[in-house]
Amino acid sequence: MKATILYGPGDIRVENVSDPVIQLPTDAIVRTTRSCVCGSDLHGYHGEATGVARPMGHELIGVVEEVGSAVTSVKPGDFVIAPFSYQDNTCVFCQEGMQTSCQHGGWYGNPETGGLQAEVARIPQADGSLVKVPGINTDTADESLLASLLTLSDVYLTGYHAAFMGQVEPGKIVTVIGDGAVGLSAVLAARQLGAEEIILMGRHTERTDLGREWGATEVVAERGEEGINKVLELTKGLGSHVVLEAVGLMPAYEQAYGIVRPGGIISRVGVPQYESAPVGFGSLFGKNARLAGGPAPVRAYMEPAIEQVLNGEINPGRVFDRTIALDDVAAGYAAMDNREALKVMLKP
User: How far is CA 236 from CA 173, 240, 287, in A?
Assistant: First the structure.
């Protein structure tokens, strides 16, 4: 089969590798219908050479081909969504809604588990990791429906997790930092949770226009102190009750604690590209502000979101603005890296 492999900074290739096989009774083999490139994939794309070939990808929808002897929730022929981490969905942390901390779970994108930017994937802990979507025929399904279902493997529900952990609700002012796919998803999710005033901090008009369609009431293109002052002006000097930080860089975090309201919440889902962050009097402590967020346990939110997509209530697949063949994945990485594409979907 074909699979995406990262060899070093900017060196992404599609290679022929052995098809995955059932290794444990709890495994399933899924043939990919669609996968995609995530903004977090670019961290490795920018990283240092390690000398280790790394399989890439953690977002997938597809059709089950084979299951291990212990798998009971899905069967060959089922159309499924695979969350970006795998989990048993039964351990204490899963039951508490923190599936990304599953005691028996883990991550894709390593030699042991493989990546999901591939024609076929092995899904560990299949009963807890795969969610069946009934009534989907991949030969006739609308492309926009497939795109929206794919966002539930990560990007939309990561934005939803930011809003959920930030305790977004009617009457609260929400500011979203970042106009990437996760930031725009956070805007859509904040609106779904009842926010009526949503400030989107972003400077790419084609992206912030979608943010406005999804519920952003104001757009702030300025950054740094200028951006902080603009948000404070829009909030009459009071700041934002909830700040959803979807970038992961220190300047974005500094903006977040600059605009959060006393007693407010900063919810981070942008993977932090720094080891430590200020939490002292001038950042969080002095404002009694709280810090939340983390890797999104998308499995916890999956079933209601599937219903919203199938009912046409939300269409988060609009974050995909380019679809390419898996063979051309290197061009997809380059397009996202150069900000020529918001999010790239891959067809096997």
Answer: 12, 10, 17
